[in-house]
Design a protein that fits this description.
The chain is of the alpha/beta class. It folds into 3 domains: 3-84, Winged helix-like DNA-binding domain superfamily/Winged helix DNA-binding domain (Arc Repressor Mutant, subunit A), CATH 1.10.10; 98-169 and 271-311, 3-Layer(aba) Sandwich (D-Maltodextrin-Binding Protein, domain 2), CATH 3.40.190; 172-261, D-Maltodextrin-Binding Protein, domain 2 (3-Layer(aba) Sandwich). 43% of the residues lie in helices and 20% in strands. The chain has helices at 8-20, 23-30, 34-48, 64-84, 105-122, 135-144, 189-194, 203-214, 231-236, 246-253, 284-297, 305-308; strands spanning 53-56, 59-62, 98-102, 127-131, 149-152, 162-168, 172-177, 196-200, 220-225, 241-245, 258-261, 272-277, 310-311. It has a 6-stranded mixed sheet with strand order 4-3-5-12-6-13. The protein is elongated, with a radius of gyration of 25 Å. The two termini are 46 Å apart.
Length: 315
């Protein structure tokens, strides 16, 4: 087959169909009409001499020929997108794109307010989106370019293709309502153990639990939440104590009727970092975005930027 007779737009449709196995979702992703996708599929079938997809009770099933084409097709299109069509430079002032960052709900509170404000100043025509992906999906999303950066504590991002940069480490504080009857300027071990506690499930709480257990400190947990959103309201309206990372406590301290105090032990939080995939290590936009994050959150500016960025070794 002469490549000059091939409409490359048809290959884009085939790649999307292989990912979605659905004409309607393909049309939505490619911003095409459903009849246009169906017509493109008909042309692909004639061009390749294969039905490519068969309707079944489980939806559209790819034929062996379609499955054989999939990996090579995705590689070719990805190369065209990122190597050929990638702009030579990134102009933040005029760029129109969505910046996607993976953050936990704690990370959204700690990082997003400052980051979004800075993006508004430097790249006013961009939009921003925060996502939270399962650990098993995050590295592949960074590799595919669906997520630009992951910022926070992500210990599973340690593959040979991942880069990381240390931002800062911090400890824990306790947050209580301003007129809490049991807690003074500092919370003692006895006050901590006699108080009733609110906890939020997740990696941060696991780190704290290990430190408390190692020091023989017990606490009475009366409320467990899956997210941090309601924490300030609940603490403000009760005598509960919540122990949170310092950066989150600093945010709480700015709210009326809340104050933060030191817990009865020092617990070092895992270091927070920014992570990106090797595919985008030299990408102009990704380099710019990493620089913005470092400017805002890097604890100690490195002597040389290249020495601050280290590739994570294979375990």
């Amino acid at each position: 087959m002469d490549i000059r007779s091939v409409d490359l737009n048809l290959l884009v449709v085939l790649d999307a169909l292989l990912r979605t196995r659905n004409v309607s979702r393909t049309a939505e992703q490619l911003r095409m009409s459903q009849p246009a996708v169906s017509a493109a599929l008909a042309r692909l079938r004639r061009m390749l001499g294969d039905p490519l997809f068969i309707r079944s009770s489980h939806g559209m099933q790819a034929t062996p020929r379609a499955l054989q084409l999939g990996p090579g097709l995705h590689t070719v299109l990805d190369s065209i997108k990122h190597d050929i069509l990638q702009p030579a430079l990134f102009d933040a002032a005029t760029a129109k794109r969505t910046i996607v960052v993976s953050l936990s709900d704690v990370g959204e509170l700690v990082f997003m307010p400052k980051l979004f404000a800075r993006l508004r100043e430097l790249a006013p025509r961009t939009t921003a989106r925060s996502v939270s992906l399962p650990p098993a999906e995050l590295e592949s999303a960074l590799e595919a370019g669906d997520v630009d950066l992951a910022i926070g504590y992500f210990p599973t991002l340690k593959g040979a293709g991942m880069y990381q940069q240390r931002l800062f480490g911090h400890t824990f504080v306790c947050a209580v309502r301003s007129r809490h009857p049991l807690v003074g300027p500092h919370i003692t071990r006895s006050q901590f153990e006699n108080a009733q506690h609110l906890i939020v499930e997740g990696k941060t709480n696991e780190v704290l639990e290990e430190a408390l257990a190692a020091n023989g400190i017990k606490r009475t947990v009366v409320l467990t939440l899956a997210h941090h959103l309601a924490v300030p309201i609940i603490v403000r309206d009760s005598n509960l104590v919540v122990t949170v990372p310092f950066a989150m406590g600093a945010q709480f301290a700015g709210l009326n009727s809340l104050r933060v105090v030191r817990p009865p032990l020092e617990v070092e939080m895992p270091v927070l970092r920014q992570y990106w995939h090797a595919r985008f290590h030299r990408d102009f936009f990704n380099q710019w975005l990493r620089g913005v994050v470092a400017e805002l959150f890097l604890e100690e500016p490195p002597v040389s930027r290249r020495h601050s960025v280290k590739r994570k070794a294979t375990p």
